[in-house]
Amino acid sequence: MENKAAVSFRHITKAFGSKVVANKDVSMDIMSGEILALLGENGSGKTTLMNMLSGIYHQDSGEIFVNGEEAYINSPKDAYALGIGMIHQHFKLVDVFTATENVALGMDKKTTGGAKEIAKAITEICDRYGFDVDPKKKVYNMTVSQKQTLEIVKALYRGANILILDEPTAVLTPQETDKLFAVLRNMKADGKSIIIITHKLNEVLAISDRVAILRKGEYIDSVITSEATVQSLTDMMVGQKVELDIERPEVEDKQLRLTIDHLTCLDKYGVTALDDVSLEAYGGEILGIAGISGSGQKQLLEAVAGLQEAQDGASITYIDPESGAKEELIGKSVTEIKKRGIALSFVPEDRLGMGLVGAMGMSDNMMLRSYEKGHSPFTDRKTPRDLANRVKDELEVVTPGISTPVRKLSGGNVQKVLVGREIASNPTVLMAAYAVRGLDINTSYTIYRLLNEQKKKGVAVIYVGEDLDVLLALCDRIAVLCGGKLNGIVDGRTATKEEVGLMMTNLNTEEKEGE
Amino acid sequence: MIVSFIHRAIMQGIPLLFGATGEIVTEKSGNLNLGIPGVMYVGGISGVIGAFMYENSLPDKSMANPFLAIMIPLLCSLLGSLIMGLIYSFLTTTLRANQNVTGLAITTFGVGLGNFFGGSLIKIVGADVPSITLSTTSKFFSAHLPFADNMGWFGEIFLSYGFLAYLAVIIAIVTSLFLKKTRTGLNLRAVGENPATADAAGVNVSRYKYMSTCVGSMIAGLGGLYYVMDYVSGVWSNDGFGDRGWLAIALVIFTVWKPNFAIIGSILFGGLYIIHNYLNQFFPFIPVDMSTQELIKMAPYLVTVLVLIVNSMRNKRENQPPEALGLSYFREDR
Amino acid sequence: MTTTKAVTKEASSREKPFHIVKRTDMPKWKSWLIRILSVLASLIVCAIIIVAVTGDNPFAVYGTMVKGAVGSARRVWVLLQEVAMLLCVSLAVTPAFKMRFWNIGAEGQVLMGGLGATAVMLLLGHKLPAPVVLVLVIVVSIICGAVWGVIPAVFKAFWNTNETLFTLMMNYIAIQIVSYFTYVWSSNKGNNVINTINTDNHAGWLNLPQSVDQYGYLLNIIIVAVLTVLMYFYLNRSKQGYEIAVVGESINTARYAGINVKKVIIRTMLISGALCGVAGMLLVSGTDHTITPNTAAGRGFTAIMVSWLAKFNPLFMVLTSLLLVFMERGAIEISTVFGLNTSFSEIIAGIIIFFIIGSEFFINYSIKRTHAKEVESK
Fold it and tell me: What is the predicted ipTM?
């Protein structure tokens, strides 16, 4: 595919604040008429780079060339003028508008004509590439997949020749993904350049012509997809061959600590997110939860934590390690769970938006889950301060002081604060969601070590992860979710990556015998 | 009698209609301008200053030129409210200050400005008149079609107002069409609903916020101008404008952000504002004293609260305030 | 970082010359320096305006202002009383604001509290012993304020009704209710003025004996001073204060921490309204001994600015309310001396607030020059 470059980045650098460098001296090309996969781990700077191309951010230094000419992209409008359209992960649609109105937004009426003309054009685009959009439908009545389609139509309508999709499959079912890929191929055949941001290797291999890899904000290399393998791509993405040297200690005495029976939960839109899942968690083991994002992991953990309502017929039983008494968790609020002495710790996915209060310092954050203790109307300030100092020393948290707002700390340090607090409460069950997302290797290993320590102490650890290598190296058992259903549980020691990967994407329709 | 009631209700409603239309335009961009009461005061006093200067420059009041007598106060009023809109926009949009605090400061400032000049204009200018009475220019503002008087009830209800009253209705209708039918209106609504989306679609969010707030302020300011130049015949009295600015904001909620509804709504609110004067005539058998009128004056606010509650309970998407109302927008916020 | 010599090409004229970046790392002293500078800048602008209006020299004018604010013992007392009243309302709205609940209904809550006090004084003043009346005054005004505050909170908690608009409307409902009662209870039929209540037995009056407290403001000031300290500890040290802070930061975090968000919203607004009720009581039974629809005198709105400018810290609020009241008293003096309208003080207040809220931008954001293109050095 010898073609000229549609977009060239030259020495692009972008920093947020004074600490976080999102992109460092990135130079790379996007050829016209190709599907380029922009590959990298979370936090590798893929989205930031593309946001500069689409006019959301502005680079601190460096140049962007579009079709060979230097481009000054100060706003999304500039980007559109250059034929660049981006489909963001969080859709940029106005909920109370119809599809037509969303397409018309920001366009000159002279060029678009009225609603009728636009609706007609939408239908034409749909027919050409094989979409389905109802021009009169309001966005708030659309499914996620429909919204994404509308976003693509919107970009095409604006004459986008360079289309950027930011993790487009994260919210789609496998069938919807296939449909999307078919459309992307149609568009490529039509001469469009497509950049797809992703960290899923199977998709990279399935759809792209070429892969460009970013790591920690820096451009590593690009390869022709047909010449790449999962192994080679992973190596580039992670930097060295992924030989995960994660310890997996053996614990002999495994006690049942948590049983989940027939758990069904709806998401906030009322769609079934978790479908009749039954699981058991034992003390002294790490139970991994695998699945593409949005397969019900969030609902599973939050249901246990008392944050998510379950449908009738479900049961979650906690078994107290001291007395052996059983406690039903369904129907109990977080406060009740705390009051009943149920030792449940939870490291949620959204660290600063849920697990911690960004504006508060380490010390105040330490009491988030325990401030109610004692009868005094005033908070005990000494205990959390001591705990904050202990966590700071033991986990080597880098912070100017324990009263510095945690929002100002780096991602790794934020996670140390959160995990440190959750472990300090001596849990019986410890749940951690994407505990190493966005963290550097060293901090990740610290987290693995901490989880293993808990396991050795007899804690039942539930670890939701996205990196299969880590799951396979760390966990004793791995429960694989697919589309909200439990698609089987495998042994972390014997299972292969392919096996788990397949279970994540292909629902086993045959009724599987539970363990 | 009913005719005169409707007539007075419309007179009362016009300032509210200006204020509400202006505030709707502003709020559609996501700016909750609680400074509207202040802006309306400034719109009024600026017009007064213009008219006062003009009248004092005339050697003889009878020499007043109708065109100048209208244009000078009108332009002064628009300029005054424009400046207020600019202050609000600069603080909230450019400097991203909190909208509620800024708005309330604008109201404090604007009401202060109005009362200050209203009370001190004569002193500052050093004019040789006892009080601000602008009957000459006011005459032109309140002039209505000559044949209206001969057309009985029809004339009184529909034709007996100064030109600003018709302008208010026209502006409300135009605004309504503008928001519903034009692309600019669509873009504006998008800015208020979801500025990030509008931005991504190439809409200049800041420019829209500035424009809508300034235009909205100018429209609202005309409400103040109408009040002094027409309704009270050019006699400024401090705090005379009262709580009409807040009533205009109530009207915005009451009409669920729809300027065409505001036309009817303003008459309704205007009617409620004065109905106590008529209750004795309408229902002689019910004793109505001064105290009851205060309770009746509560009605517009009460129904507004009810509308607010009902809409939040029904949770119908189209009847909600613009989603980004009250929030500043910063593109690089993640 | 070694930068090569920057050369601005003509082509880059299409680039914006600067862009705005959020900053997180400004040291505290620097942010306070910016705030102080903004106050100074506002005073300079005020001076220019004052000079333009009065034609006097600015130093003399500020001299007049100082004299007006603290020129005599009486004036000092009035100043302190005004600060206390404004501060009391500011304290009241602060817990709600910290929770990101926009209670702009303090004006109405104060009035309702005052109305409760008035009702007890008028209706029971001669029927019950004075100490009982006073206790009832306190209890009833607190309840009235709290009820007025909690209504919007309940709707916010259960139906997410927009609290800014709701509390705003509640102000005018309260004003009309008070207007109604000023007619009903007017001393001379139909003149809608309630004369000073219980001048004979002082039932329900919250004042120290005149021998101790010449102007009758001391008790108010003491009460508010105590409330300020209490509020500081409530917000910063108590469990409920902690809950408020968490809810204000993130509802999700609050849920995760097991905080009942609805309960906190309702409870906090009960407190906010109750404190407004106290302010109303202090105004009616501690100061005016009567009520008018204008008893709150816009303090409900000014308080929002006081609280905001002080970053919701009760101790700083003493300073911000002092600043505003000082300028107000001074401006009133200027108006009197120069025969101008007293609304001059509102203009001054507006300008000061504009400057301070504008200055926050420079604390939270920095303007960066867009990097000029660097010449390749190799």
Answer: 0.87
